[in-house]
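I need you to check the entry underneath: sequence plus fold tokens. Let me know what the token row says about the fold.

>
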Amino acid sequence: MKTEQKLHNTILQQDCVAGMAALEPGSVDLAFADPPFNIGYEYDQYDDSLERNQYLEWSREWISGVYDVLKSDGTFWLAIGDEYAAELKLMAQEIGFHCRSWVIWYYTFGVNCKQKFSRSHAHLFYFVKDPSQFTFRGDDLDNRIPSARQLVYNDKRANPTGRLPDDTWIIRPAGVAGEFQPDDNRTWTLRPQDLEACFGSTEDTWYFPRVAGTFKERAGFHGCQMPEQLLGRIIRCCSQEDELVLDPFAGSATTLAAAKKLGRNYLGFELSEDYVERGSSRLEQICRGDALDGSAEPTMSAPGTWAKKTARKTRNTEDVETAAPDASQLQLTYHGVRKAFEASHDGYSVDRVLLDPKLTKAFHKACREHDVIGDPLTWNLLLLQLRQNGQLADIPATKQTEFSWTAADPYLAASEMALQSLLRETDSSHLEEVFCDPELAKQFDERAKSLTPGFKPFQYRWAALMISRQLTAVKERATVLRAAHTKKLGRSLRNIVPLKSGTTLALPNDAAVYAVTCNGKTLYAGETFSLRQRIGRLVTESMAELTGCDCDQLQLRYRIQEQELFGQLAWQKLLAEESESLLNLQIK
């Protein structure tokens, strides 16, 4: 008699073979596995250098486990590298799976090889248990892309619903997208001329386009790790909402995160206690219906196509022409910035380097040592460009930056108010415009400290980034709340006290939604795990000075809210939009 594991919405810390053996047979709708490739990668709790026969024997065990737990109409996707792709494909078929597609996920900027073609792809095998009964939602509009006939040739014969993607996928990896928005995140291409830097002759994915008309050979795009958009495509196509998605090797929980966002139930197995903790924390910060990280397919543009129109428009303008920077000098500068980042990032991400004053200082020092032209602002911006272009993807971020919402709660409001006031005063649009500029970053630090003293500059900065990352998702969550609550949230803030230091001591030490007002105008709307702690740390004189209000006119309105009902800033966003608050971050 099997002991059935908890099936829904968790990561279990245990070996997947034993874990799947404890599941009810036929209980999983979709499984996605990205197992260790047996190439010597250093995992936290796994030896990735098994003897060949041992690795294959282990692979047969876990693939058989997947087969057993899948429903009769279930689907199994396997991601694997070159070394064992052929063996595992045949093995899965021997176990009983039927292969519907052999998808190539193309990427570049991988490990450069001198004696063979550089690896630029991974294999994605699409298996089903029953070749005549399975889920494939090919007609759903979310799973289709526009065709060249639609966007380029304006052909009336084009199917208005578009087409299914090809089986070579070009998807920007999660590590490149980052928090600072990239300019280009397309996940498909219409025509060869739209691939301006793809499919180089030294890579192991070769592309020979049909020679016709104005078609020209083009080359590649970047991808190096499993992004949410790729998992999203698989989950949308091969499962229904509320069905169960299994990942036997949960790792960073990307499969589970995509499943949760797309309204599926999920289950992951993971050996590492550290990975389980981090993955669970990641999932806690996600809500059903949140957008997948990275951009979805654009619907009305293809870069190569519109580049020609842009060029024509530029030639027709009367603007003063500026000479393009010398290509060789620019490449030397990029190279110097990259080397400086390698030497100074200490295993952290680009965002950590740009927001942590100690790492920023080390990065700027390294830029000087590498004789990089420019100044700190220039170096910061060039570093962002390198990241957005995918040219830092092969430099691993081996250290994580982890701040929980609970830990940041005391100074979260100060960070948001400081950032929003600077964005408004400088007419800036994005967080990076503040933190890439050393002078503005210093002003932010001073402003946040004046509002809620006692914390380090990096803590204030990272809290601002945490909020900025959530803006789009929070706006969507607030929309859901607004639809469900017909009465305005502000009407329920019936507890009103003057915002003076003496009164804060009497505030309840509970979670709450609140608003700081002045003469009926909302200055800031917030939600907090501890009202007394949050408001008790707020320097009202600094807030009054920042907003031009009189201290005696500041009031606090609040409503106690059960912490379990908090929606990752959704209540705060709803109240901020409803009251048109002055100091809450806005999407521009």
In short: The longest helix spans residues 457-484.
